[in-house]
């Protein structure tokens, strides 16, 4: 089984997130997910509806996810890839090319995003309800 690693905020968890995580899990067989902490999301300029504890619990509850780790900053990816002996680092293709510098450590893949759904759209919908 190959170890796959990814990161994300996963706010208002939706089928776009699930599609991506299941596709990543299928690539290797063991999927580790770094969930952005509330502090890191502030750094990313992302306001979340759901706090870290609940976002991490939802992701950890998924059948296709083997482990959840906190993502506290942009710089931890290299250390995580080494620490967890990662074979494949993957993200949705809105990140295409952004993590190619990790290619000396492991395979880097960008998978298609799921169109028509995003946490931002859900928040917009909630606003008008
Ligand atoms: N995603 C997707 N389809 C969507 C929405 C998101 O495939 N409709 C993917 C994104 O491409 C990303 C993952 O789901 O790979 C998580 O998305 P976000 O929660 O928006 O995460 P992001 O803010 O991109 O954080 O260090 C990396 C960052 O933590 C990534």
From TrEMBL:
Q: Provide the alphabetized UniProt keywords.
A: Nucleotidyltransferase, Transferase
Q: Which GO terms describe its molecular function?
A: nucleotidyltransferase activity
Ranges where the Cytidyltransferase-like domain occurs: 5-124
- Claim: Transferase is one of the keywords in the record: yes
This protein's name: Glycerol-3-phosphate cytidylyltransferase
According to the record, which residues of the full protein are present here? 5 to 133 of 156
